[in-house]
Amino acid sequence: MPVTRRHGVYYRMIVHLIDGTYELFRHFYGLRRFNKGEDSPFGAAIGVLNTVLQMIEQGATHLGVATDHVIESFRNDLWADYKTGEGVEPALLAQFHPLEEALAAMGVAVWPMVELEADDALASAAHIAARDPRVEKISIWSPDKDLAQCVRGDRVVQVDRKGEKIRNEQGVREKFGVDPYLIPDFLALVGDAADGYPGIPRIGKATAAALLNRYGPIEKFPPSVLGDARPLALLFKDLATLRTDANLFRAVDELRWRGPTSAFAEYAERFGDTRLLERSLKAAGTIAS
């Protein structure tokens, strides 16, 4: 079992990869239920910082957060109806950049994505981390369907915080009816409303799973299966396929949390939550002891 030595103690190396965009949305709309329509300027960002800090307090040592620095990506050039920032609450959009800056000040690896998306960053980070034999497990903290393609056995898993589920390879098969590597093909056939592409008409989840389990990836389908819809299916597969070549870090050790930087005090003060600084300093002290 791969372990790493720290201060004379051996511990298992688990890498936690967090979908900062999802967490920001989750906290923003969670707060909406209690703030009676008056959005705090940094309420959702504070929520994400608290979530990440809680993970550290509970023992997370290596972690990174990916965000959509801009909502659009290269996929918008491939499909005109792909998701954009249109309709996203301005009060929510305004918290992305402050969150990214505050996470970096807190000493957390953060990847603000521009041409690629946060999900591409998570897929790339999982790919890089999986190459290190010291890493026992990689947990991707996001419920997004497309991230199921990253799952590998019990080593790379997807964690749905809201649904309180940890999905390994068997869990992906149970949920979607196909193996993780076929998730892009599955989504291409059934569509993904959240990302803005509709899938292939008259192909539902059961039919898609049956076709993929019979023939394999879309490229191996007999021409008669999709007919004229084949080029569209391949386009949607391209949209659903996460990139794993983002140059985020070279070594897993770069994800090791070593405590907040001196700049974090300013952000804690600006956000109106000085407890964040106190807790992060205490957590850093615990790690150093």
Please describe the structure with a list of short key phrases separated by commas or semicolons.
Rossmann fold; DNA polymerase, domain 1; alpha/beta; 43% helix; 2 domains; 289 residues; seven-stranded mixed sheet
Provide a descriptive summary of the structure in words:
By secondary structure, the chain is α/β, with parallel strands linked by helices. It has 2 domains: 3-142 and 246-276, Rossmann fold; 180-240, 5' to 3' exonuclease, C-terminal subdomain (DNA polymerase, domain 1, Orthogonal Bundle), CATH 1.10.150. 43% of the residues lie in helices and 15% in strands. The chain contains 13 helices and 7 strands. The chain has helices at residues 20-32, 43-57, 75-78, 90-93, 96-105, 118-130, 169-176, 183-190, 205-215, 223-226, 230-240, 264-271, 275-288; strands at 3-6, 9-19, 62-68, 109-113, 135-141, 156-160, 165-167. Strands 1, 2, 3, 4, 5, 6 and 7 form a 7-stranded mixed beta sheet that branches. Strand 6 (156-160) and strand 7 (165-167) form a beta hairpin. Helix 1 packs across helix 2 (43-57), helix 2 runs parallel beside helix 5 and helix 8 (183-190) packs across helix 11 (230-240). It is globular, with a radius of gyration of 20 Å. The protein starts with a strand and ends with a helix. Residues 1-10 have low confidence and may be disordered.
